[in-house]
Amino acid sequence: MLEGLQQAVDQVNAKLGGSVVGVGRGWGLGSGFVVGENLVVTNAHNLRGSETTVVFGDGRTATGTARGVDPDGDLALLQVDTGGAAPVEWADGTPATPGTPVFALANPGGHGLRTTFGLVSAVDRSFRGPRGRRITGSLEHTAPLARGSSGGPVVDEQGRLLGINTNRLDDGFYLALPADEELRSRIDALGRGQAPVRVRLGVGIASAREARHLRRAVGLPERDGLLVRMVEEDGPAGRAGIRVGDLLVSAGEQPLRSADDLYEALDGLEPGSSLSLAVVRGAEELSVAVTFGDTREEGSV
Length: 301
What we know:
- The chain has helices spanning 2-16, 181-191, 208-217, 236-240, 259-267; strands at residues 20-23, 30-36, 39-42, 51-55, 61-70, 75-79, 101-106, 114-128, 134-141, 153-155, 161-168, 174-178, 203-206, 226-231, 247-251, 254-255, 274-281, 284-291.
- By secondary structure, the chain is an alpha+beta fold.
- Strands 1-2-3-6-5-4 form a six-stranded antiparallel β-barrel.
- The chain has five helices and 18 strands.
- The protein starts with a helix and ends in a 10-residue tail after the last strand.
- It has two domains: 2-191, Thrombin, subunit H, CATH 2.40.10; 203-291, Pdz3 Domain (Roll), CATH 2.30.42.10.
């Protein structure tokens, strides 16, 4: 059995070693892989600007330029000279299930290929992306991965893509964006420069539980809502007069009991529209109209 596993690792490495790349430098290092001629996919959280260093399996270094970025979905597509490296082959569409053997590959910051073995432990998991929005439908697996592995591929024994490693859990498991038709469509759209347009408030929030605790600590009545902990000065909320310490209790008449409630309200809006927020400031209740700009204001709460 161990000999068979060794052979499988050797085959996967031989097939994909030139396709898995390092992304970034220093503390911002990550991984990625070739998905097409001069195209590399990675996680959005691996980028620190519109350009980044890409290191290929043979040690060649090139500068990649962001062709399309979806920060809320934690996905980015880079334009870079791939030097003839073969794109990673997608799986045949059969979904992975608990118990499916997988291999996770990474090249953290270009410091060398790493390959580990594990099993799919769960499917349809969810987690919060870099800007707080919930990412659903994720693949959970047990292949151990070092820091800088996010953005690398998780593949089957034939080296075919099953997902993009994205989020490490505290208990050692890893979550991957599943390589399904939706992901393929998202990558294709980023390749055309069609990044998702989502309105944002430009605030940092505390959970409803924290909000109740903090209001109780200062002698204010407990209320369900989201406590504003930070306001971006030039963001939509800041321009509308939202302040640090405000409690957002409803959006468009929808009660706000969790961040997901607020995202749901925002997802139904287009740039140029407005949203009415019910706000509690101390003991005073206010109604604030937030207007969102006509430009692409990427980001979220």
